[in-house]
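This follows on from our talk about sequence and fold. Can you supply me with one protein entry, sequence and fold together? Could you add the entry underneath, on a fresh line?
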Amino acid sequence: MAGASIEATLELWASSLRDVKARMRPLFTQERVAASAGAFLDGLLGNEQRKTGWMRAEAAGDPGPWRQAGHSGPRAVGSR
């Protein structure tokens, strides 16, 4: 990627993220759950250095951290 413009690099990252989300989509039976999983990825890759459940929920537009904690697995739900 040496010499690639920042815009080209960002577009490559965005394209790769879209590909990952598309590959994940068949794992979910409901569109809203797939969208929530995509928002979870967006939150993990966001600018915040500290990513609490509340911060991830806010970034995803969720009313609270419960849905975000559910994506993290059963241990995360009990560790709030």
In short: The first helix runs from residue 6 to 24.
